[in-house]
Design a protein that fits this description.
heterodimer; A: alpha+beta; 11 helices; 9 strands; elongated; B: alpha/beta; Rossmann fold; 6-stranded mixed sheet; about 30% helix; about 25% strand
Chain lengths: ~375, ~240
């Protein structure tokens, strides 16, 4: 292995091409991963932020807010369950909003939420007609104090502060009190209007250790479906399909990295057949030579991944917030590096057979 | 320095021979035929003897050398290097044997191109015993004896042909082998340089009491050896 690492430091030019190609692949992997994470956060932020142990929808709604109705009687039944400590009504309507200073067709896509129990990072419900706005709405030139005119009915909502990571289906959240939400819903979606006390969903907080999801499904399962927060996230339309599609693309990218490494090191091994023969003749074991190859592949991959990591971080800083749903996290970078290292080791394995078959007798000329 | 009183036949050694091959055969089996590369070879090399192995291309010199050096296993017969019988060794055992008991100087690829002269000597230790400091001291001593101290940090591309051969000789001596096998050591060198290298080989082997087999097709080299053995079509001449 010392031998292989010395070759890397003494002949870095040999590995430049592979490093460059791997850097590009690593950038692609991290960027795609960042897009996936950004899209997922943008679609699911409002649900992820819920400080609750369960979300309850009506049974036939397929976990869609607009199709769901939770009656007061059902809520009362849920409240009475032993593991439940409190419940809060939650509802949403997705509309376009006119922004002061923007053109009439330049609408901001907003999700107007009415809530009783504050999600993580969101203060308690504001006064009627006011809202906490998700900061991705800054990209629409929205500022604190702006009065947005929401929906065809141009319902006025004034932005009084910022929250983060609370978007839903790619739309920035406007977090309002329940009355404001009901009036916006009634004015702009009369087909979806709700009676007093009826909510689209409930968020449920439970005692520590209580399996409140099971309790609710058992008690009122013919009327509602209770989901954990992660399950509720997966039920958001398009989220699972989006993740599956992106993960497939990421998988193909990893396979491409594997092929690049396999080809590069296969060529390198062919080039070095005579040298390996000589080394084997003087006592090098195949596993020593192969370990050297793997070490080189790992180092090259780590260098490529490090450069790529820096590049995507810089890219993330340069891209204006809200313009594209890119979220670069340390977790994603580490996952990408691990996947690339996996590809490096597997890619090298294609050279193992060739290394094993290098004949030390070749160093002494013909083996016959 | 040239050979002055060399015996012309295999004489019985008075000490443990460096190499003893008895009735060694190497047969390669093809689909429906077999090729006998070495046929009933008998060869004994004394503890500090230098033997030239001469024969045309395809005569079996390399096969004999490979078997003696533990690179190839014989199909039949026994091979003993020093006091170690290697005939029944598996690949792993042969590799360990080569690390510790045999030195090689090859015809073409001899040195690792990205290692300095000193590191090329130390690679033997890194692949085998891993003695660390004693190995480094030995490498420095060998380089001094071979007149390469001021070239110890040079890469092979920065060395002349003769210097490269000296480094290869140093590498072959690093593990204090019982036997050193030279494969056409002067084929890539001009006459004057070839002479210098052969003189160096003889003085280094004799000063250490190390046996050597020099494979060559050049009859001029035999002057530097104690004895010449001819091989034709896999058969050693009596």
């Amino acid at each position: 292995m010392k031998l292989a690492l010395r070759e890397l430091t003494r002949r870095p030019g040999r590995f430049v091409t592979a490093t460059l190609i791997l850097t590009l692949i690593a950038v692609l992997l991290m960027f795609l991963g960042g897009l996936l994470d950004g899209l997922t956060r943008s679609a699911t932020g409002a649900i992820r932020a819920q400080d609750a142990d369960a979300i309850v929808y009506s049974e036939a709604s397929q976990a869609a807010f607009l199709r769901s109705r939770i009656e007061p009687s059902t809520r009362a039944e849920i409240d009475s369950l032993s593991g439940v400590t409190e419940t809060g009504g939650l509802g949403v309507v997705q509309l376009g909003a006119r922004v002061p200073g923007n053109g009439p067709r330049d609408l901001a896509n907003v999700a107007v939420w009415g809530y009783e129990l504050a999600p993580d990072g969101v203060p308690n419900p504001p006064a009627p007609g006011q809202a906490w706005a998700d900061e991705i709405l800054k990209a629409d030139n929205i500022e604190i104090g702006d009065e947005l005119l929401v929906g065809p009915a141009r319902s006025p909502i004034t932005v009084i502060g910022w929250v983060s990571n609370t978007s839903y289906n790619g739309q920035g959240g406007l977090w309002t009190d329940v009355d404001t939400w009901r009036s916006v819903l009634a004015a702009n979606r009369p087909d979806a209007v709700l009676a007093e006390g009826v909510f689209q969903s409930l968020v449920v907080r439970a005692e520590a250790g209580a399996d409140v999801v099971a309790e609710i499904n058992l008690a009122v399962g013919d009327e509602v479906i209770a989901l954990t927060i992660p399950d509720a996230i997966n039920e958001i339309p398009g989220v699972t399909e989006q993740q599956t599609t992106f993960n497939q693309i990421l998988g193909v990218t990893v396979v491409i990295a594997l092929v690049v490494i396999a080809l590069f090191f296969a060529l390198l091994t062919i080039e070095r057949t005579a040298l390996y023969g000589m080394l084997k003749a003087i006592g090098a074991r195949s596993r020593t030579i192969f370990a050297g190859l793997v070490a080189q592949a790992i180092v090259v991959t780590l260098i490529a991944a490090a450069i790529a990591g820096l590049l995507v971080i810089v890219l993330d800083l340069l891209i204006p917030p809200g313009s594209i749903p890119l979220y670069i996290s340390l977790t994603r970078i580490i996952i990408s590096i691990v996947l690339l290292l996996f590809a490096a080791v597997i890619g090298c394995a294609f050279s193992l057979r060739r290394v094993l078959h290098v004949d030390p007798a070749s160093a002494l000329g013909s083996s016959q | 320095m040239k050979n002055s009183d060399s015996p012309t036949t295999n004489s019985a050694p008075t000490t443990t021979p460096a190499l003893h091959m008895a009735d060694v055969r190497k047969v390669y089996r093809m689909a429906d035929s077999e090729v006998v590369a070495l046929d009933h070879a008998e060869l004994t090399v004394a503890g500090d003897e230098i033997v030239a192995l001469v024969g045309p291309s395809g005569s079996g010199k390399t096969t004999l050398c490979s078997i003696a050096g533990g690179i190839l296993a014989a199909t039949e017969g026994s091979v003993t290097v020093g006091d170690e019988e290697i005939s029944g060794y598996n690949d792993k055992q042969l590799t360990t044997f080569r690390q510790n008991q045999v030195g090689f100087v090859f015809q073409s690829v001899n040195l690792v191109p990205f290692l300095t002269a000193r590191e090329n000597l130390l690679v033997v230790d890194e692949l085998g015993r891993r003695q660390g400091k004693p190995a480094r001291e030995r490498a420095d001593r060998l380089l001094e004896e071979l007149g390469l101290t001021d070239r110890s940090k040079n890469l092979p591309s920065q060395l002349s042909g003769g210097q490269k051969q000296r480094v290869a000789i140093g590498r072959a001596l690093m593990n204090e082998p019982k036997l050193v096998l030279f494969d056409e050591p002067t084929s890539a060198l001009d006459t004057e340089l070839g002479t210098q290298v052969m003189e160096l080989i003889r003085s280094e082997m004799k000063s250490r009491g190390t046996a050597a087999v020099v494979v060559t097709h050049d009859e001029r080299i035999t002057e530097y050896c104690d004895r010449t053995v001819h091989i034709i079509d896999g058969v050693l001449a009596a």
